[in-house]
């Protein structure tokens, strides 16, 4: 089953949007595989955002993600990466589709509430970066057959 890392970033946690984000992913039908509330180290932040190193917003991004606790989660389901990025909305909140999280709760690209993996490959990689193997639960839900076609 395809997997995606999801982070509720410090602004989402501080603004008490944790339940809102989890609720939207649950209602979408996605299945939770792991979760932890944590303070992100600079080393983890730098590894997670390595692709953005050297960009003008990089230092601010590292400072933001390490500034307060985040909720890290792995969600799974068919096409989970595309589904979650749609639920999150475009990176810049002013470009995010109405009804998406970033549209409904954010205004600025540097305070856009959530992170989600951008490809199935990165979903696997990021899940492995943020979680130990035994922190991810392989399980089936009774409702799976009513949500997942196969
Ligand atoms: P996403 O989080 O939608 O995958 P990304 O990977 O391009 O977006 O960038 C990671 C984060 O970096 C993004 O959520 C917010 C920040 N960011 C991206 N582009 C930015 C910009 N032009 N100015 C400020 N922050 C930016
Ligand atoms: Mg990204």
Task: Outline the fold blueprint.
Layout: E1 3-8, H1 10-14, H2 18-28, E2 31-38, H3 42-48, H4 58-65, E3 70-76, H5 80-88, H6 101-105, E4 114-116, H7 120-130, H8 144-147
Antiparallel strand pairs: 1-3, 1-4, 2-3
The chain binds 2'-deoxyadenosine-5'-diphosphate and magnesium ion.
The site of 2'-deoxyadenosine-5'-diphosphate has 9 residues, from loops.
Describe this structure in words.
With about 150 residues, the protein is an alpha+beta fold. The chain has one domain (about 1-135): Nucleoside diphosphate kinase-like domain (Alpha-Beta Plaits), CATH 3.30.70.141. The chain is about 40% helix and about 15% strand. The chain has a 4-stranded antiparallel β-sheet. It is globular and about 45 Å long. The protein starts with a strand and ends with a helix. The mean pLDDT is about 100. It binds 2'-deoxyadenosine-5'-diphosphate (DAT) and magnesium ion. 2'-deoxyadenosine-5'-diphosphate binds near residues 52, 57, 109, 112 and 118.
* Secondary structure category: alpha+beta
Gross morphology is globular
The name of the CATH architecture is 2-Layer Sandwich
The span between the termini is 11 Å
Task: Give a short account of the largest sheet.
Answer: 4 strands, antiparallel
Oligomer: single chain
One letter per element, helices H and strands E, the order comes to: EHHEHHEHHEHH
Ligands in the model, by name, code or SMILES, are: 2'-deoxyadenosine-5'-diphosphate, magnesium ion
SS strand fraction: 15-25%
| CATH homologous group name | Nucleoside diphosphate kinase-like domain
Q: Output the CATH topology.
A: Alpha-Beta Plaits
Nearest-angstrom radius of gyration?
Answer: 15 Å
Structure summary, number of beta strands: 4
Q: Provide the residue-averaged pLDDT.
A: 98
Count of helix runs: 8
Query: Which strand order spans the largest sheet, edge to edge or round the barrel?
Result: 2-3-1-4
Low-confidence stretches: none
Number of domains: 1
